[in-house]
Structure formats: C-alpha cells, structure tokens
Amino acid sequence: MTTTTLGTTTGTVLEASGVTMRFGGLTAVRDVSLTVGSGEIVGLIGPNGAGKTTFFNCLTGLYVPTEGAVSYKGTRLSRKPHLVTQAGIARTFQNIRLFANMTVLENVLVGRHTRTKEGLWSALLRGPGFKKAETTSEERAMELLEFTGLAHKRDHLARNLPYGEQRKLEIARALASEPGLLLLDEPTAGMNPQETRATQDLVFAIRDRGTAVLVIEHDMRFIFNLCDRVAVLVQGQKLVEGTPDIVQADERVIAAYLGTPVENGNGNGNGDSTAETAEEASKTNTAETAEAADEETGDTP
Ligand SMILES: Nc1ncnc2c1ncn2[C@@H]1O[C@H](COP(=O)(O)OP(=O)(O)O)[C@@H](O)[C@H]1O
Ligand SMILES: [Mg+2]
C-alpha cells in the first residue's frame, strides 16, 4: 500500500474493512470489506434493498458506519463528506442531484471548488480573488465537458438537459474535484442502449485517465463488460466477489436475483432459462429505479 497523492503509483486506492451500518433494528450493511486498486473498475451488484447505496454513503462520510473503517490510499477517511471529496473520492447519486437552475458549465465549476483556493462562496459570488482562478477553472471545466460530450450544452440549464445528459453532467461534476476514485450509483438507470454503451466507454476512459471506479448497476451486461472485479451484496452481506466470469457462473448469485420479488411482474414464467429470467428481473429493477429517479430529477443538493 502506498500513501502517495499522485495517484499514479500502483496500490490500494480504497480499503473498506468490516463496514456495518445499522438503522435502529435494521442492519442495512453487515461486515462488508472491499478494496479497489488503482487502475481498477470494480462493480457492486445486488437486488434492490441489498445495501449498495448505504455502503456508498458509508464510504463518502454521508453516514458514519456503526462499525468498520474506510481508508483512502492508506489514510483513514474523515467522516465529513467535503473532506472525503477533498481526500480524493467523488461520487454520483442514484437520484440525480444537480443544481437544476445553474448552467451545465456552472455545475462543473461548483464541482471544482474543493480544488481551488477560493472555495465555493467566492466562486458563486465572484469575489476579488476569484477572477484570477476563474480562467483556469473554466478551462478545466470545459475540458471535462469535452471529455463527457457536453461541451455544446455549456450554457444550457441543467434541468433542461435530457435525462442521459444529466447523468453525464453529474459525472463531469464529480470529475471536477479531480478524484482518485469515482463512485457511480446506477449511472445508466433510465438510459437507452446507445447511451448505456456510451457510458461504458466513458467509464473506461475515466479509468484510463487514472481514476479508479467503483460502480453500482443493475444492468448485468454493463457490469460484466466493464468490471475487472465484481462484488455481490445480498441482504447487506457480501455473498460473492470475483471476476465477471466467476460471479456470472455462481449459482448463489442467480438464486439471489431470482429470489427478488419482481413488482408489477407481467407473468413471464414461460420456462425461460434462469439466465434470461435473471436478466428480466434486472431490467425490471432498472425501469423502477429510472422512474424513481425521474421523479427526483431537478432536485438541488
Ligand atoms: N437512512 C435510512 N434509514 C433507515 N433505513 C435505511 C436508510 N437508508 C437505507 N435504509 C434501508 O437500508 C436497506 C438498504 O437500502 P439501500 O442501501 O438503498 O439498498 P440498495 O441501494 O442496494 O437498493 C433498505 O432496507 C433501506 O430501506
Ligand atoms: Mg441504491
């Protein structure tokens, strides 16, 4: 393990050990350990309610885990979200959180505030020290908009972007904090197949720029194409972890997905193979999540 902040050396980027999160009588995450190495893309899958988002919240300081420890590049993380971002972990949310009435460019500039001396308020109020930093910041922000394919939308209000582009903008904003690790919570929820494929390429490109990625997603094809390693959470516990081949072939994983009640199911019980049925279940989950996220689109943090 290394404690360098350059993010170019090999080593462990994230180390979560024995993370447990209880809400009253409910244990949402139970004794989960997970590492992400530099240059890695790691997937986190599991049925709805398995504790995936809660685990992310424990990594980013949004929740203080009941038990366990989280380290980033060998240093124990603070429990304050802005200090976690400062340390080098950025995230996107399952339910998109953009500043709906700010432009695309402004949203990315806000994401940069942990990396500028001037800070958030100076950036928003355009204080005296801000002008100097502004040009650099804007250049960096525009570079990220180019990278995510949103440069032509720089002056559009975030709330007017189509859904898929809002998800991309969230990624651009997260990247603006120059993270060594990016956490993506259902980045393709609500996307069509082309957008999903573009997101896959984007995640590869992010990794190639030197940012490790931990991604939650219901879309199995997306996860298994993308990830070097996949961990499966079921009822708060890590059931299986391994390469996509190993996880895909694991009977317990298939069983865990088939065991999930599929709400609004339209009776597809026509003797499908288990793999197809599991995929149907995951599609249904994705659609539900997309609906839920749609309702929240436009919320400000
Ligand atoms: N703030 C909270 N208070 C109480 N229970 C919560 C809270 N957040 C999540 N939970 C519960 O924890 C469990 C895991 O939820 P979540 O992490 O959102 O699952 P996933 O992201 O895998 O679908 C669920 O039973 C959920 O209701
Ligand atoms: Mg979730």
Please summarize what this structure is.
One of its GO terms (biological process) is D-alanine transmembrane transport. By secondary structure, this protein is an alpha/beta fold.
**Mean of residue pLDDT values:** 83
- CATH C-level label of the largest domain: Alpha Beta
Q: Write down the overall geometry.
A: globular
* Domain unit count: 2
Task: Compute the CA-based radius of gyration.
Answer: 19 Å
How large is the share of residues in beta strands?
15-25%
* End-to-end separation: 35 Å
Characterise this structure:
- With 301 residues, the chain is of the alpha/beta class.
- It folds into two domains: 11-88 and 179-259, Rossmann fold (3-Layer(aba) Sandwich), CATH 3.40.50.300; 100-178, no CATH class.
- 41% of the residues lie in helices and 21% in strands.
- It has helices spanning 52-59, 81-87, 104-111, 119-125, 130-148, 163-175, 193-208, 220-226, 244-249, 251-258, 274-296; strands at 12-23, 26-37, 41-45, 67-72, 75-76, 89-91, 181-185, 212-216, 229-234, 237-242.
- The chain has a six-stranded mixed β-sheet, with helices on both faces. It has a four-stranded antiparallel β-sheet with strand order 2-1-4-5, with helices on one face.
- A hairpin with a 2-residue loop joins strand 1 (12-23) and strand 2 (26-37).
- Helix 3 packs parallel to helix 6 and helix 5 (130-148) packs across helix 6.
- The longest helix is centred in the C-terminal third of the chain and has 23 residues, at 274-296.
- The two termini are 35 Å apart.
- Residues 1-9 and 260-301 have low confidence and may be disordered.
- The structure holds adenosine-5'-diphosphate (ADP) and magnesium ion.
- Adenosine-5'-diphosphate is lined by residues 23, 26, 28, 46, 48-54.
